[in-house]
Amino acid sequence: MSTAQAVKIGIAEMEVVIAPNVIRTCGLGSCVGVVIYDAGKAVAGMAHVMLPHSSMARGGVINAAKYADTAVEALAQLVMAAGGRKGMLKAKLAGGAQMFSFSTAGDMMRIGARNVEEVKKQLERLHIPVVAEDVGGHSGRTIEFNPQTGVLSIRTAAQEIKEI
């Protein structure tokens, strides 16, 4: 009998797990944690998205996990390669906080909100429904997803653990 492992992903990384393993990421401020999963197959992937669009990349090779416009599709492909079924995929989101206030809060400084918008746009394009989310606010989050139960646990500073 094997024991479950907690797979940890960092900023601008993505990974896939199959139950009984769980997947987690820490330090979601303006970043968005995107979980795409197939509950029937108990397979899930998570991406720690840092920026909304790959056009913000500077030179060279683009890290698909770093940008919302590239991470969502790449993550969906990884989940399907691990056994997820295209028509059965669902998504949960957390993060996208506005961590700092600016007197000139132009669009460029709304990274959290822009990350959330772009992730949702890409999920909609791929026909993957968002079934739960905990986004926005001003606090960082740590999240963990269990593909066996489909529960996303969210730890936010000075708050109770939330499950969605």
TrEMBL record:
Alphabetically ordered keywords of this record: Chemotaxis, Hydrolase
Reactions catalysed according to its record: L-glutaminyl-[protein] + H2O = L-glutamyl-[protein] + NH4(+)
Major enzyme class: hydrolase
EC code(s) of this entry: 3.5.1.44
SUPFAM superfamilies found in the cross-reference section: CNF1/YfiH-like putative cysteine hydrolases
UniProt keyword Hydrolase, yes or no: yes
InterPro entries: CheD-like_sf, Chemorcpt_Glu_NH3ase_CheD, Cytotoxic_necrot_fac-like_cat
Name of a matching Pfam family: CheD
HAMAP family per the UniProt record, alphabetical: CheD
Function summary: Probably deamidates glutamine residues to glutamate on methyl-accepting chemotaxis receptors (MCPs), playing an important role in chemotaxis.
Family affiliation: Belongs to the CheD family.
Designated name of the protein: Probable chemoreceptor glutamine deamidase CheD
